[in-house]
């Protein structure tokens, strides 16, 4: 099914366009929000690409990304709040 | 039967990409930090839900592998449960950092600043 | 900080073991033994942060069915809020009027407050920023992208009207 590959490329392009906000964003919180959204979009792209190739190894990458994506967000958030 | 499942998968991918594109454009175009965060909430809710349902249908009906389907469900649930915690923490941090430095946020009723900034 | 109790350790151990089996999805003896060891270590060290009060409340089937009913309510609210946010974004991001409102809530327990504020944060358009308590009444500070009502009760009815009923049925 070629549409799975098309969807994966579309999601990866959206994640690539968010790099603009990561590079430009006026404050640290802007960069962190864009990075977090990048993480979620790449998880979706990994799911679609893994279904296209039929190999489960890409799902493990998406799983680790989903589990570890929360930790850096909370760390930067607590630092900005001033309670770390 | 198979063609109906294929059509359903295509519709789910298109709907998920529509809402994820809304979140992406919102992050790129919204005026300040908290509004960008509101728009970015579209990505982990309907984007991830639609894409993961499409992935589960494909793994169950075409690949016949139960472990891949269960793993996709675990990924989707993990993103859904952990995203609001990080979002809440970083909203508070962005507000406090903005109050310390350049006061760029324009909030019309600002009850939080009224109660905690004396 | 409260002490480590046996029922809390058992409940956390069962949850960790279920997650382990779902992730690995292999039922050989070696994998299951490794899962038991890792889950036991995790449960002993983290159960005192994780389970307060009655640890086995979700083994009651009434609670499980009310949680399923709440998830249906929450999903319909989620779709409505997503469509509104997509309209605002594709219309050029002009129709925004951000503000922070202070909303009173009737929830008392910690788990209920956590579930309610997580649900509010997960719907696009509203983010819970803080929870405060004044004179026995809990208040939520909510950042709202399109402020339609400034007083607490009207804003609360617009933001969390149907969510709070479902949350109270689950946790009170």
Account of the protein in words:
The complex is a heterotrimer of chains A (84), B (118) and C (172). Chain A is mainly alpha-helical and 84 residues long. Chain A is built from 4 helices and no strands. With 118 residues, chain B is mostly helical. Chain B is 84% helix and 0% strand. In chain B, α1 packs antiparallel against α2, α1 packs antiparallel against α3 and α3 runs antiparallel to α4. The mean pLDDT of chain B is 88. Chain C folds into 2 domains: 51 residues, no CATH class; 112 residues, no CATH class. Chain C has a 3-stranded antiparallel sheet. In chain C, a hairpin with a 2-residue loop joins β2 and β3. Classes of the chains: A mainly alpha (84), B mainly alpha (118), C alpha+beta (172). Chains in contact: A-B, B-C. At the A-B interface, α1, α3 and α4 of A face α1, α2, α3 and α4 of B.
How are the secondary structure elements laid out?
The complex is a heterotrimer of chains A (84), B (118) and C (172).
Chain A: H1 2-17, H2 19-24, H3 28-53, H4 57-81
Helix pairs in contact in A: 1-3, 3-4
Chain B: H1 2-29, H2 33-40, H3 42-63, H4 66-100, H5 111-116
Chain C: H1 6-24, H2 29-50, H3 61-90, E1 99-105, H4 110-122, E2 126-134, E3 137-144, H5 152-171
Antiparallel strand pairs in C: 1-3, 2-3
Helix pairs in contact in C: 1-2, 3-5, 4-5
What's a concise summary of this model?
The complex is a heterotrimer of chains A (84), B (118) and C (172). Chain A is an all-alpha fold and 84 residues long.
Q: How is the main sheet of chain B built?
A: none
For the terminal residues of chain C, how far apart are their CA atoms? 24 Å
Radius of gyration of chain B: 19 Å
Count of helical stretches of chain C: 5
Helix content of chain B: over 70%
Biggest contact: A-B, 48 and 51 residues
Q: Could you name the ranges of chain C where pLDDT drops below 50 across 5 or more consecutive residues?
A: none
